[in-house]
Automatic annotation (TrEMBL):
Protein name from the UniProt record: GDSL-type esterase/lipase family protein
Stretch list, region Disordered: 14-44, 146-186
InterPro entries: GDSL_Rv0518-like, SGNH_hydro, SGNH_hydro_sf
One Pfam family linked to the record: Lipase_GDSL_2
């Protein structure tokens, strides 16, 4: 397992020692946002990264989890702050919102390889669907990142600064806003995050729904303007009274597999995160307040690639069954999601395997509920393909497809009411 508790590493003087575990879920807190790190890519230059995250529900007394799960050496965070982003696509902050993050009372922390650390709670209130800016300064640290080319300026995203520590800057002078894509140059980086994994807080919400998935959960290729299905689900839930709400945390990694196997796209193990079976605790069950898990994984296993052959249905089903069993043992309800069309030929082995997995999800009796994404987006005239209005490519729905996915989720699965309980 690549994400695991790490043995303590001697910390610098006046620094708390970060561990692989830590107080993950104290009473009364819920994860209001997450993004799963997928690998380590290079070393941080002498600059600050301002990560942008969106709270799914209103919360206060915020904590931030930062991680070094794939690093080959300790990551030293010299300073860290959190504030409220003033506007989408801009690096400056709402006046008066900047807070210094501390770790056991100290502003500097060392995170060992394979470890993570939670900040102390800070007195900051964030509204539902409001963006947070988490600024980290760790020159020379291994860059543990989350990346996917997103369809819009909505988070997740980051700004890389000009040289130096700009964690306490409330303006944007040190943060160029030119779109730099997935690089390490100063500027705006849609879809790219460094080190930040989770934000939790005190909230009137009744807990957290975690979406465990692959690129169809990260929102890769959701072109056409709009949010991912997880963000749209959060929007529907936000329309309910605060005491009936649940937070939504996105634990998607593009290219991820659900079963233990070589990754089809990357032999280095740094592309697409460990299999869902091996990241389940770190990315889902270990989050504060988790009550429900939506599982949408298996497309990459069944599709295969240059570095792994297509998996049989039984391999995916066995992995799904193990995840459901482990989650329920922790008191978490598991919602199975059917796999969407992949442009497989109707008489192909891949399509037969996809249909077998979907039959298991719908009728296997393993899950506490089912979301039928396949039925929501498939083309009635050709069920091996996503319908044209919803398709970005053979594997991925566009923004309209993500909207259809969000609308296909019955809020009653989470004890929140029936389909009529939704945003206008």
């Amino acid at each position: 397992m690549l994400i695991a508790s790490a043995a303590a590493v001697p910390a610098a003087a006046a620094e708390p020692a970060a561990r692989g575990g830590g107080p993950a879920a104290p009473p009364g807190r819920s994860a209001v946002w997450s993004a799963s790190l997928q690998g380590a890519h290079g070393t941080s230059p002498d600059l600050t990264v301002r990560n942008i995250a969106r709270a799914s529900v209103a919360a206060s007394s915020l904590r931030v989890r930062i991680g070094n799960p794939y690093g080959d050496r300790p990551a030293v965070f010299r300073s860290a702050t959190v504030g409220l982003q003033r506007a989408v696509g801009e690096a400056d902050l709402v006046p008066g919102s900047l807070r210094t993050l501390t770790f056991q009372g100290r502003p500097r922390v060392t995170v060992p390889p394979g470890g993570h650390v939670y900040s102390d709670p800070v007195p900051l209130r964030v509204a539902a669907r409001q963006n947070l800016a988490i600024s980290l300064y760790a020159p020379g640290a291994p860059v543990n990142d989350h990346t996917f080319p997103p369809p819009s300026p909505n988070p997740p995203a980051s700004f890389l600064s000009l040289g130096g520590d700009h964690t306490r800057d409330t303006g944007d002078a040190a943060y160029p806003e030119e779109d730099r894509g997935l690089s390490a140059e100063p500027g705006y980086h849609p879809g790219q995050l460094w080190w930040v994994e989770v934000v939790d807080g005190r909230t009137p919400a009744k807990g957290t729904i975690v979406a465990l998935g692959d690129s169809n959960t990260t929102g890769h290729n959701a072109v056409g303007g709009g949010d991912r299905w997880t963000d749209l689900l959060a929007r529907r839930i936000n329309a309910l009274p605060p005491g009936r709400q649940l937070a939504v945390a996105n634990a998607g990694i593009s290219g991820n597999t659900v079963s233990r196997q070589p990754n089809p796209y990357d032999p280095t193990g740094q592309c697409c995160g460990p299999p869902a079976l091996d990241r389940l605790e770190h990315d889902a069950l270990g989050l504060a307040g988790v009550r429900h898990l939506i599982l949408l994984e298996g497309t990459n296993d069944l599709g295969g690639g240059d570095h792994a052959p297509p998996a049989p249905a039984s391999q995916v089903i066995d992995a799904m069954r193990e995840i459901a069993d482990r989650a329920r043992a922790r008191g978490v309800r598991v919602i199975g999601a059917t796999l969407m069309p992949m442009c497989n030929a109707a008489d192909s082995t891949r399509e037969a395997n996809r249909l077998a997995v979907n039959e298991f999800v719908r009728t296997g009796g393993v899950f506490d509920g089912v979301v039928d994404f396949d039925a929501a987006v498939r083309d009635p005239a050709d069920p091996t393909r996503i319908r044209d209005a919803y398709r970005a490519d053979c594997y991925h729905p566009n923004a309209a497809g993500h909207a259809a996915m969000a609308e296909a989720i019955d809020l009653g699965l989470f004890g929140l009411g029936r389909r009529g309980d939704r945003a206008a």
